Amino acid sequence: MIPRIVVAAPASGAGKTTVAVGLMAALRRAGHTVAGFKVGPDYIDPGFHAVATGRPGRNLDAMLSGEERVAPLFAHGAAGADIAVVEGVMGLYDGALGTEGFSSTAHVAKLLQAPVVLVVDASAAGRSVGAVVQGFVAYDTGVRIVGVILNKVGTDRHEAEARAGVAPTGVPVLGVLRRDTRLTVPSRHLGLVPADEQREQAAAAVDAAAELVKAGVDLEAFVAAAAAASPLETVAWDPAAEVTPAPEGRPVVAVAGGPVFSFRYTETAELLTAAGADVATFDPLHDSLPDGTAALYLGGGFPEMHAEALSSNEVLRGQVAAAVAGGMPVIAECAGLLYLCRELDGHAMTGVLPATARMTGKLTLGYRTAIAASTTAFFDEGRRVRGHEFHRTAVTLDADAEPAWYLPDGVEGVTRPSVHASYLHLHWTATPDVPARLVAAARVHVGLEK
Fold first, then answer.
1. What is the per-residue pLDDT for 354?
2. pLDDT at res. 304
3. Pairing mode, if any, of strands 191-192 and 58-60?
4. Closest CA to 441 of 331, 352, 351, 340
5. By percentage, how much of the chain surpasses pLDDT 70?
């Protein structure tokens, strides 16, 4: 029965992240315990959600997790909160290409039986905003749009015209936000700079968004709209129910973090812990491997922006190379793949893999269906998974490199007996045996099991 609401928009660029983050922060300031969620495979927005709510940011992705897990994952992430705000992705009805809107914001809203507030960029329109709202209401009557927030409004007269346009639709205007230069957050080739890389700026932007929302949105009406959500019949996802931990002995699984490796799902550490690991987060820019490390998980991020600094940590590079040579199990996704190469843009990396990496001008983006090219400690040959790619780098493999995945357009990634490295990000809630197998391999590596 948790009050919940989805913040959506007609298209990308309308300002829904600013509005969603501002709402989360303003509600928290008003005394609410807020759970924040992001539709889709985005890592950056949940970082700002965490700053706004003081709780972990989480993703709801019907494509990567499976639509049957969306409501359970929501219930798990919302535990202890009194209101949940779900930020949409792209336009309300935009989903995976060629799927009639699968994994779209509208799809997730239906799975959660959650009402929707539409954020409309009114900067270049007046009364015509009403036609946009009416069109979105009529497009799919299974999606319940309960309010509109007009964003980027210029003057009082502009506001009056936009309100007049929306009035005939019968959808209430819950708020009007003016343009505000304080909301600018640095961006780069894959979107906003993650909150982990610019904590002071991120906090300032969240504060500004909260002030803007508090001044321009009727928070009581927003909370009332969220409270009108239908009862959601589901059982909360439980990581402990997904895996069977070993009876004794907890190996240390080191998880890369810090500014470079900030792209990972909250449930990753939860699954590793449930599988029997002690998770130790470390920063590859400055740290050594945590004491007793038995396995390594290297997630995604922006190593291309920090290649020189990563290379400068020679102690860690040597430790990783030696540990892998000694059989330590490693799973690496995207940034992790680059870190395991011999070099990245001419800067020495760990040299674990027979490959080099470089920054390019080409964006690779989208969901992928992949088939394991060989059997490793983590995947059996022929295993089919769904993943997501999002990068502007390229990896050149040596001729004798063993690929990780077969994709429809070729091969991808690199494997060794104890290493699985690729560009694909997986949401491990759909493959809980993978973190369990990583922990099992860690136990074997340090002699807890044969």
1. 94
2. 85
3. unpaired
4. 331
5. 96
Strands (E), 257-292: 278-282
In angstroms, what is the C-alpha Rg of the chain? 23
pLDDT of residue 314: 98
Which of 401, 403, 366, 407 minimizes the C-alpha distance to 384? 407
Structure tokens at 222: 């927003």
CB 191, CB 89: distance < 8 Å: no
How many of the other CB atoms lie within 10 Å of CB of 154?
12
Tell me the C-alpha to C-alpha distance, in Å, between residue 29 and each of 38, 100, 210, 289, 439: 21, 39, 8, 38, 40
Tell me the average pLDDT across 331-353: 96
Task: Give the SS3 label for residue 113.
Answer: coil
Q: What is the pLDDT of residues 415-435, one digit of tens each?
A: 998 999 999 999 999 999 999
**Residues 9-40: tens digit of each pLDDT:** 999 989 999 999 999 999 999 999 999 999 99
Q: What are phi and psi of 43, to 5 degrees?
A: -105, -25
**Which residues are the active-site residues?**
334
